[in-house]
Structures are given as structure tokens and as C-alpha cells.
Amino acid sequence: VPNSQLFIPAELIKYKRDGGTLTDGEIKKFVDGYTKGEVPDYQMSALLMAIFFRGMSEKETLALTQTMLFSGQILNLESISAFKVDKHSTGGVGDKTSLVVAPIVAAAGAVVPMISGRGLGHTGGTLDKLEAIPGFNTQLDVKTFESHLKKHGLCFIGQTPEICPADRKLYALRDVTGTVENIPLICASIMSKKLAEGIDGLVLDVKFGSGAFMKTFDKAKNLAFTLKNIGQMSGKKVTALLTSMDQPLGKAIGNSLEVEECIEILKGGGPADCRELCLELAAHMLMVANKATSVDAARKRATDLLDGRRALIKFEEIVKAQGGDLSKLPRAKKHLEIHAEQDGFVSSINTEAFGIASLILGGGRLKASDKIDPVVGITTEKKLGSQVRRGETLATLHFNEDKNTNLASAKVLEAYKFSLQKTEPEPLIKAVL
Amino acid sequence: VPNSQLFIPAELIKYKRDGGTLTDGEIKKFVDGYTKGEVPDYQMSALLMAIFFRGMSEKETLALTQTMLFSGQILNLESISAFKVDKHSTGGVGDKTSLVVAPIVAAAGAVVPMISGRGLGHTGGTLDKLEAIPGFNTQLDVKTFESHLKKHGLCFIGQTPEICPADRKLYALRDVTGTVENIPLICASIMSKKLAEGIDGLVLDVKFGSGAFMKTFDKAKNLAFTLKNIGQMSGKKVTALLTSMDQPLGKAIGNSLEVEECIEILKGGGPADCRELCLELAAHMLMVANKATSVDAARKRATDLLDGRRALIKFEEIVKAQGGDLSKLPRAKKHLEIHAEQDGFVSSINTEAFGIASLILGGGRLKASDKIDPVVGITTEKKLGSQVRRGETLATLHFNEDKNTNLASAKVLEAYKFSLQKTEPEPLIKAVL
């Protein structure tokens, strides 16, 4: 705001509303004021909506990210000399790659300080998946996290209240004021939390398609560019993959079921698509961590670590270190198969519907305080392009309590569209930035 | 919001944000919920900002107006059989016409139930002007208001807390969230209050120019169209005038000074521009009230009532009825003349600067709780196009306390721009809708 000595929130809102660019200092005062409760919710939500329409420059986005980052604790992992690399996915259905990728990369000697979130709406969360393993403790304090990283090269924890309090307050406000779907705001929210981890590099898995937050490739690409830029301007090595979420990843959706599928992959098996994406992500993490000189070499290293079961051993080591017992992984007692009502080739899948179906069966949450049943979920048998005969099993619901099973099975059945001729789906990994 | 049975404020915000049109019921639920405190400020401010960018259809604007209107008391003046007509100005500097126009129209036999506001920022308010008259009581209850209207055909009061509480709450929020400058929101705020007066017709004086809220003719015209449409859709007879606020109206700015100028006009004298606008507004009010069959005839009737002092007698009757004593009108003890520093023709006047100068001398308010000194003000000697010689008086400051006089005189001096050749100003009355 030109010629302004005083900080007047309404003037900043008007300036952004009319297409102006805020200074770093103005963004800091507004967001810090909001975090401390000095700027009221109603002024922040008006600014957020103005940002929704007017956007933010790269410099503004960086200032917002930095303000949110410095609103809380930033982990100092300088005592760990190895390269520290993390992976972040923008979220999808059946997206369980962290549980495979992180052990591969840790087995290669890099350090993976993984701070993850919980699932909300139709998307799953890494923490929920890990907590399906009886005893697995994700609520470690920062000291324990650091000592696990030194000892094992990998530790999975949840966000602590000390990390990015500004993001927590802002996200809750955005959620109820229609200001979630905006690239600079999404970027600042993701990157402030990742930068707080004390990492040296980051691989981003930005999803597009019917099960992703970003429905189109172009929108996802814009987000990926912004995330990568903000990461690089903050001094981190960043690679971003753009990957399809036009169908659930792998076969399993649901927390316990997804852990089982990860173990299959860690044993050298599992669904091809999920194995493929895990190897690609791991290869790029190894590149970022200077563990290979070419993506091909990195890819070969990752494949060897996976097929040689080094990653499985690492995963089992981590589960044990964090108190989990894989032998007690729970399984659902009841199953309901969903059968095709026609012949044809699967031409499209409403991926979000699978997330919603799993949610209403009790495997997800609508609001943060909802409880999850870890055994609930869905396994899918047919991929895009698969030939299907009438009566064949498309998918199976897994549950213990008969809750919303009719609704969920209808949703899953409706999610499939068929064609007479086989159509080729989008490539799983469409671009690397 | 399609397919929505539940009222979820965040969904309505998103729908409007994405360019959707809200139903009457959705607008009513949101605004009523806000007025009752069930919808929080931060959701309302996000919706207001979305409306700022996406606008509102005429139907949405009408629904908002109606919801605000029905949030409070609506005066029932059905026991008064005469045509009830009011005038509303969007506000300006030196705009004192109500004190002349209302008595003319009442003297012609129409009833003028005038509920006015106070000044804020650089604009004056009718209530403040009337209250410069010692003893004048604008805080009458609705019963007394009605009995005065029956007896005198005219009564001036301030808004009661029972009228349009939704507007009061919304306006306060808009003021601090950068959502004031939007035509549908301005329209709903003005019209809900006017419709609550129980009038049959309305004449709008929509100002444009350097001293107006709308700086350009086109914006003012859009507002005038919207105001007129909403008024007509609510079953009222409405005429809108578009008048220039590129210079202060008349010579006097400031409450007591403006009352004095009005009395001059009511005696057949006074500045030509202000007299002209008063007669034009009165003529259109007489047309709306079916007191004449042509604007020319109405204009002649208004002129006769003014020059025959019937309007003056009516004004004196009203002042007395509301407890005022015109003989005690206060005058400032100190004066400071501002002299031209060059020769030339007045080519432009920053009208808003006069409002601000009067405000900082103590004649206006920055916030609603500020106190006003009624004697403070400015009289101007030169109009747009006037020839000025160096050393001539441009304007005079009036005050009792020496507060900000240097700053105010600098502001007034800077407000004038001169040219070597005479330029013609915009016509005072540019259009009638």
C-alpha cells in the first residue's frame, strides 16, 4: 500500500482487492497479527477471498510461506550430516507410496524426516495408514524424532502443535470460507510445513485427475511449478512429478489394506502401477539426495533395494522402532463383492467416489475429530482399459460393521464407466519438473 | 447451490465465488443467520468479497434488500392517505438540499417522512445540520414521527435501532473488510432503509465527481439504475437524478453555515447552483407525488412555493414543532481567509479536500462516535470557471478553536487548480432516470 506508514488491515485488503502487490512486511504484519489474534478472522477471510481472485506474485507467495514457517518451530537437523530428503504428495485415493519410498531411500543412506498428515474427505493420510499397525506411535517428540533419524535414517511422525501454527489457524479458516482452492495459498500451506522439517531437498508428487484435488493436468502443473519455485527460493533442491489420479493407485484403498499392499510391494510384488510410481519417486529422491548421477542409475539402485528386500528390512526396522507389530495387522471380518452389470472395457473411473465410499463405510473422516476404523476399505480388481465381463468382480468392500454398505456399493458401481472399445488411459507419470 | 438440501454457509460462499447465482432463500438464510449471530463474521466477509468480484443479479440484489428490510421494523404509514415521498442523496460536500426541498414538497401537500443519517468522513449528514439548530430534536419515537407527519406533512428523524439491524451490522463489517465499494451492496443498504420508511415514492440524488463516493458519471449511472430498479420492483415510484459533485454545492460547508444558507434559499436568495438543484429535486418529488402533470408545471409550482415563502413558513413550522430555535443558530467566533496565490480561472476543485478540511477543523467525524462542533465550516467564494486575481479570497474557514487551521487552509488552497483560459464545468444536473 503506497504512502502508508500505519498498518491498517482494511487498507491492505482493499489494495489486494484492487490488484495491488503487498510487500513482504505487509504480508508478515497481516499474517503475524492474525496468528496472534490481533487481526480478526473476518479481515483475514476477506483478504483470503481477495487473494483467491487476484492471486499472489511469486514474491508474495514466498513472503507468505516464510511468515507461516517462522510462526512456529523449525526443526534443526544440522547435527545429522547426511542429506535429508522428504516426499510430499498432494493427496489421492489409494496413494500409499510413502510407506515404500521412504524405506528405499533410507536404505540407500539418505535421511528421511517424514512429517505427515491425516486423511480428510476422500483422501487418505500416511499417519492413518501407519496407525493401522497395532502399537505404531506417530506422536514422538522432536528429540526422539531426531534420535530415530540418526539411528534408522527414517522416522514417521505427525505434525506437532509447535510447527506452523499460522498454517493450522489459516487452514481452518480457509476450509469454512471457500478459500481453499487457490495455488499460492495451497503452496504456502504445503511448503511452510515442509520447510519446517529441516530438510535439504524435497520430491513432490502433484496429482491430477478425478481423484485429485486438482482435476486437470494444467492446474496441477501450475501448482507444481509454484511449489518447486518456492522450495528453490528457500534454498532447497526440489523435483516435482505430475502423476495421474484418474484411478485409485494400486488395488487397495483403506488403511490396513494399504499397509498390506505396501508389504507386498516391499516383497517385490504388488500392483504394477503402484510399484512403478514408488520406484520413480524413490529414484528422484535419490537424485535429489546426490545418491546417483542419473535418473536411470537412481532407478536401478531403487529397484535393487526393493527387490533385494533391503527396503522391506528397513520398513520392519522402523515399524519396530516406533512400537508397531506388523503380525497383528487387523483384517475386516465382512466382505461384499461388487459385480459388473455389463460387458465392456473400463473407460473411466470416478476416483473420488472410491474415497467417499471408503469414508462412509467408516474408513475416513469428514471432520478432523472423526474416528477411523482401520480395517475398512475397498480393493479394486479392474483398472482403466481392463476388459470386464458381466458378473465379474469389480471391487470388494471390507468392513466389520454393516454401515452404509448399500450406499457405498452403489457409489463404487456407479464410479465405473464402460466402452465397447479399449481406450488408453493417461500415463501414470505424465511429467517431471 | 444446486442439489443442496442443507444450508452450509461455506458451500454458498464457494458457489458465489465461482460465479453462481444464489436463490432468494439462500440469501435470506445467510443474511438472517448473520444478523442473528449464527453465521460468523468471517463467513459473511468472505461472501461479501466474493460478491465484490462476482456481483449480484438484480434478483439477488432485490432478495438482499428485502432480507435487510425485513430484519427490522417497517413503518406503517397507511393511516396517512396523502402520497408519501422521500428524497435520498448518496452524499457530498455542501449538499444541504433536504432542508429546502422537503419543506417545498410538504407545502405542496405531499407528506415527507424523512429518516436521515449522520455525516461520516468527508460527507455531511442532514441530521447533523438540523442539530446545529439549538433545541432541534431528531430522536423522536415512531408514534411522534407519525403524528408530526399527519399534522405538518414533514418530520425529520434519525434511524432508530429497530430499522434494518442487518444493514447496521453489515455496514460495520463492510467498512473494515474492503467491501464497501460495490453497487449491489450499496444499493441494498440504501434501499432497505428507504423502503422501511413506509413511503410510496422516492427521488434519488446520485452524485458523481471529486466530492462523491462514485468518482465517475458511469459508475454513478450504474448505481442509479440499480437503485431505481430495486425501488420499482418493490412497488415504489422512483426517479433518479445524476448530479455533479465536482465542486461543493452552494457556498457553505459545515452544519450551522449550511442551515444559514438554506434559510437564504428559502427566502428566495442563496447561491444559484444550490437553489437550482433544490427546485429540480422538488419538482421531481412533486411529479412522483402526482402533484403536477409535467416537470415544467412541477418546477413552476416549486418555484412559486419557494419565492412565495410558503416553504420558509413550512420549514419554520417544522423547526418549532421539533423544538428548535432558529434565532439561536450559533456562529463561529474566528475566521481565516484563504487567498489566491496566482491569477487565473478555476479549472478544477478537489471537492473531497473541502470535506476533509472541515472534518479536521472539528466539523465532521472520522468515526461514528466523534463529536462535531456545529459552527465549524468553510465558505467558498469561487466556483469552477470563476476568474480569480492573486490575493482575492477563495474561501474562509470558520471555527472557534484553533485546531488544525494551518493544515486545513493548506488543503483548501491545494484543492483549487487554475488555468489561463476559462473551462466550462459539467452541468450540475447531468441526467434524469
Based on the model shown, name its key terms:
homodimer; globular; 45% helix; 433 residues
List the helices and strands and how they pair.
The structure is a homodimer of 433-residue chains.
Chain A (H helix, E strand, L loop, with lengths): L8 H9 L6 H12 L5 H14 L3 H12 L15 E5 L8 H10 L4 E5 L9 H6 L10 H11 L1 E5 L6 H12 L6 H13 L5 E8 L8 H17 L3 E8 L7 E2 L1 H12 L5 H17 L6 H13 L2 H12 L12 E6 L4 E6 L1 H13 L13 E4 L6 E2 L4 E7 L5 H11 E4 L9 E4 L1
Helix pairs in contact in A: 1-3, 2-4, 2-8, 4-9, 4-10, 5-12, 5-14, 9-10, 12-13, 15-16
Please explain how this structure is put together.
Two copies of one chain form a homodimer. By secondary structure, chain A is α/β, with parallel strands linked by helices. The model of chain A has no long low-confidence stretch (mean pLDDT 94). A four-stranded mixed sheet of chain A has the order 1-4-5-13, with helices on both faces. The first copy, chain A, has a four-stranded antiparallel sheet with strand order 6-9-11-7, with helices on both faces. A three-stranded antiparallel sheet of chain A has the order 10-8-12. Helices cover 45% and strands 15% of the residues of chain A. In chain A, helix 15 packs antiparallel against helix 16. The longest helix of chain A has 17 residues, at 217-233. Chains A and B meet through helix 1, helix 3 and helix 8 of A and helix 1, helix 3 and helix 8 of B.
